[in-house]
Specification:
Blueprint (H helix, E strand, L loop, with lengths): L3 H29 L4 H25 L4 H9 L4 H7 L2 H46 L11
């Protein structure tokens, strides 16, 4: 069985580094610009390592709901009965919904980028045609 003390330690570590990332990251981004993302990214990555450790522990103990997590951390012996009461159909529907939302956002972003890129290309092409009509030669425009 997984020890809940490890889970508590990892949770505190994750929260500490997330808080530290915001305390250090926001001023560094405002002061240093794009270079300020480096300390923020490093601290955020460390917090995600702790989060992955927590998820591994939850997966080992087969803990999914909030009731199960609380029972696990308190060392409650009736964890198996809570796991049997879990509504697996509900979790299947949630997983499908989450996957569908993520997939639709990816499609939306992809289509939006294509539309934006096409509009940008058309604007450059129109500008190039107008420039040629006026007799200007600009090396930045595309050739047909």
């Amino acid at each position: 069985m997984v020890n809940s003390e490890h889970m508590n330690k990892n949770t505190k570590g994750m929260l500490f580094f997330i808080l530290l990332a915001f305390i250090v990251g926001v001023p560094s981004i405002t002061i240093f610009g794009a270079k300020g993302y480096l300390p923020f990214s490093i601290l955020w990555a460390i917090s995600m390592v702790f989060a992955l450790k927590i998820e591994k522990e939850k997966k080992k103990a087969n803990v999914k709901t909030l009731k199960e997590i609380i029972a696990f951390t308190e060392g409650n012996p009736n964890l198996e009965t809570l796991q049997k009461q879990r509504n697996n159909r509900k979790y299947f529907v949630e997983k499908v919904t989450i996957y569908t939302c993520i997939r639709s956002n990816c499609i939306h972003l992809s289509v939006g980028n294509r539309i934006r890129n096409r509009a940008f290309y058309e604007a450059i092409k129109t500008s190039q045609q107008n420039s040629k009509k006026q007799g200007h030669q600009n090396p930045w425009f595309f050739e047909d």
